[in-house]
């Protein structure tokens, strides 16, 4: 193991900024964490942000059609009455510029920007055991040190660009959806190839198809999708949500996924076929992620799941005119919602257009990218632009890439070589005073993110407050409690059908070589919150404090 001397930085005092806490990332998490630590605890805090603007995932994901899958009235902060009552969303599912506008509105209202360093990419972070101090180095050669380091880097922020032979030889342009050019991409008159049909690909294909001369969608795994039924938010909607926010937030926190609706208590198998069909039809007409909540056991019971899967498979046939294409688009290898269910605006309809072609990569895998396009085992597809909607190195990627060394120089990359090991998704043994907002082992990506983020930030803030009140300088998750938590995360996943989707990014299966470990906590937000609260009330059981 490397010694402390070899990993601690030789810090030039003049270039070092000392403070009480360093936050990495200025998205939903980083902004709220800054507000809590600075404005409630009175700490000296700095936020380091790689981008030249705030917004986190919404700063980078600007691909055509990028919008939120949670409904706008609850895809926002709940902690501040004034913000809640002053802000109005324009659409049921806000598009990316509107979410950035919202986050800028919040940041300005709370005067957060003065403590955010933009264009400041963290290249490494190291813990000094003697001083109980984290030192963070940035790409532009700056050093920041503080007793507490908090990662607010998001779960889906490390782009996964597949290593396809020949990409460097491509004469056209290629883009990953998660690193979209801010000036946009002009598709007019262009032949576009899109690889990937997850939530992102399903959002972007209809928009690209409208703009491009021709779109070829390269599909490896067919996906379910529910219509979003997007539309404008009316003045009545705004009044209704403003009047009812207390109840909306209560419901969101009380549930499994941080959404303000309850999951039905009835089994899909407890009703007649006709009644079940009617319930699914209504949910389909209403649209959105709420479809999952139609019955209690869609994600618990294989047969119940089959009823939802079959309903959605049948819908594809009713939308897509060509039966052979409809069959290619029909998922057969996994049950509905065992992978994150996408929602769409005209996805399946896109395949009725004359300028759209679907290629089944299971029947004809990609061999290489050539100078002029994509070559599969069956033919060459001539392209001017390739869009990679190929997802992310989820949950662990953004953390491991920070190049973090903990106690006695141990690297996070090595500690997590066999998969992430966290206690409550908040901390990892040997990484004292390092907190992770919505890290692996927490409900995070299975939830409406702002609500999951607020729970984490509140817990971390209270923990730091308690430590300071008790004169404690160091907190570290015990190995024992961590192993038990990892086992509990597995148990919670195994109580659902989620691990059945073998190609899911929840399992890390989308990144070649990544260990297959179910990463988010599937026990539900309310249960998770009560476990975290109980740990805090017990004097931080499972953590070593000194
Ligand atoms: P994703 O769900 O991981 O989908 C990636 C797609 O690319 C899949 O169809 C995958 O096929 C395909 N793919 C990956 N590598 C490939 C390769 N080498 N060759 C061919 N195909 C390949 O990624 P995503 O669509 O970006 O979504 C990730 C998550 O981001 C979502 O699940 C959601 O949580 C979040 N998201 C949220 C929103 C929102 O709320 N607005 C929007 C978009 C995304 P396989 O299925 O075969 O692996």
Please give the structural blueprint:
Blueprint: H1 4-7, E1 16-18, E2 21-24, H2 28-40, E3 45-48, H3 57-60, H4 81-86, H5 96-109, E4 116-117, E5 122-128, E6 133-138, E7 143-146, E8 148-151, E9 173-176, E10 191-195, H6 199-211, E11 214-219, E12 226-227, H7 235-254, H8 273-286, H9 302-319, H10 323-328, E13 343-344, H11 347-350, E14 356-360, E15 366-370, E16 373-376, E17 380-382, E18 385-388, H12 397-400, E19 404-405, H13 412-415, E20 434-436, H14 449-469, E21 475-477, H15 479-494, H16 525-537, E22 543-545
Parallel strand pairs: 1-7, 2-3, 2-8, 3-4, 5-19, 8-20, 9-18, 10-11, 10-18, 11-14, 12-13
Antiparallel strand pairs: 5-6, 6-7, 15-16, 16-17, 21-22
Residues 67-69, 156, 162, 195-201, 203, 220-221, 340, 361, 389-392, 445, 503, 505, 510 line the site of NADP nicotinamide-adenine-dinucleotide phosphate.
Task: Describe this structure as you would to a colleague.
By secondary structure, this protein is an alpha/beta fold. It has 2 domains: 15-158 and 394-545, FAD/NAD(P)-binding domain (3-Layer(bba) Sandwich), CATH 3.50.50.60; 193-388, no CATH class. It has 16 helices and 22 strands. It has helices spanning 4-7, 28-40, 57-60, 81-86, 96-109, 199-211, 235-254, 273-286, 302-319, 323-328, 347-350, 397-400, 412-415, 449-469, 479-494, 525-537, and strands at 16-18, 21-24, 45-48, 116-117, 122-128, 133-138, 143-146, 148-151, 173-176, 191-195, 214-219, 226-227, 343-344, 356-360, 366-370, 373-376, 380-382, 385-388, 404-405, 434-436, 475-477, 543-545. The strands form 6 sheets. It has a 5-stranded mixed beta sheet, with no helix packed on it. Helix 2 packs parallel to helix 14. The chain starts with a helix and ends with a strand. The relative contact order is 0.14. Residues 1-11 have low confidence and may be disordered. It binds NADP nicotinamide-adenine-dinucleotide phosphate.
């Amino acid at each position: 193991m490397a010694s402390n001397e070899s990993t601690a930085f030789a810090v030039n005092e003049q270039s070092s900024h000392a403070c009480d806490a360093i936050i990495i990332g200025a998205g939903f998490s980083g902004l709220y964490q800054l507000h809590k630590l600075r404005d409630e605890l009175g700490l000296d805090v700095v936020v380091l942000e790689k981008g030249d603007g705030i917004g986190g995932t919404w700063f980078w994901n600007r691909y055509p059609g990028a919008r939120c899958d949670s409904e706008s009235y609850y895809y926002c902060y709940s902690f501040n009455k004034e913000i809640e009552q002053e802000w109005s969303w324009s659409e049921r599912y806000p598009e990316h510029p509107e979410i950035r506008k919202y986050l800028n509105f919040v940041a300005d209202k709370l005067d957060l920007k003065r403590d955010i360093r933009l264009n400041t990419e963290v290249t490494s972070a190291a813990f000094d055991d003697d001083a109980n101090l984290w030192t963070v180095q940035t790409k532009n050669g700056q050093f920041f040190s503080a007793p507490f380091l908090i990662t607010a880097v998001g779960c889906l922020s490390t782009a996964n660009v597949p290593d396809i032979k020949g990409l460097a030889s491509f004469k056209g342009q290629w883009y990953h959806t998660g690193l979209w050019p801010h000036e946009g991409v002009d598709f007019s008159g262009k032949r576009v190839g899109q690889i990937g049909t997850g939530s992102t690909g399903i959002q972007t294909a209809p928009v690209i198809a409208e703009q491009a001369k021709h779109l070829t969608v390269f599909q490896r795994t067919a996906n379910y999708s529910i219509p979003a039924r997007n539309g404008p938010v009316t003045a009545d909607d705004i009044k209704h949500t403003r009047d009812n926010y207390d109840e909306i937030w209560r419901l969101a926190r009380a549930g499994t996924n941080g959404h303000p609706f309850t999951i039905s208590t009835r089994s899909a198998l407890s009703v007649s076929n006709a009644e079940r069909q009617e319930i699914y039809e209504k949910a389909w007409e209403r649209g959105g992620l709420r479809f999952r909540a139609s019955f209690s056991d869609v994600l618990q019971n294989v047969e119940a799941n089959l009823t939802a899967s079959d309903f959605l498979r049948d819908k594809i046939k009713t939308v897509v005119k060509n039966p052979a294409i409809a069959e290619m688009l029909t998922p057969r290898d996994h049950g509905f919602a065992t992978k994150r269910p996408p929602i769409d605006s005209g996805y399946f309809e896109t395949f009725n257009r004359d300028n759209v072609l679907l290629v089944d990569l299971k029947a004809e895998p990609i061999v290489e990218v050539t100078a002029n396009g994509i070559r599969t085992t069956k033919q060459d597809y001539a392209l001017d632009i390739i869009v990679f909607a190929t997802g992310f190195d989820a949950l662990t990627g953004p953390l491991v890439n920070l190049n973090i060394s903990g106690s006695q120089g141990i690297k996070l990359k090595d500690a997590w070589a066999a998969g992430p090991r966290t206690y409550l998704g908040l901390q990892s043994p040997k990484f004292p005073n390092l907190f992770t907002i919505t890290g692996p082992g927490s409900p995070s990506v299975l939830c409406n993110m702002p609500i999951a983020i607020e729970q984490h930030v509140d817990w971390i803030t209270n923990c730091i407050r308690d430590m300071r009140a008790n004169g404690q300088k160091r907190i570290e998750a015990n190995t024992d409690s961590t192993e038990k938590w990892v086992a509990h995360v597995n148990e919670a996943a195994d109580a659902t059908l989620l691990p059945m989707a073998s190609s899911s990014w929840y399992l890390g299966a989308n990144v070649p070589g990544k260990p297959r470990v179910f990463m988010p906590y599937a026990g539900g937000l309310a249960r998770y919150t009560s476990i975290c609260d109980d740990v805090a009330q017990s004097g931080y059981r499972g953590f070593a404090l000194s």
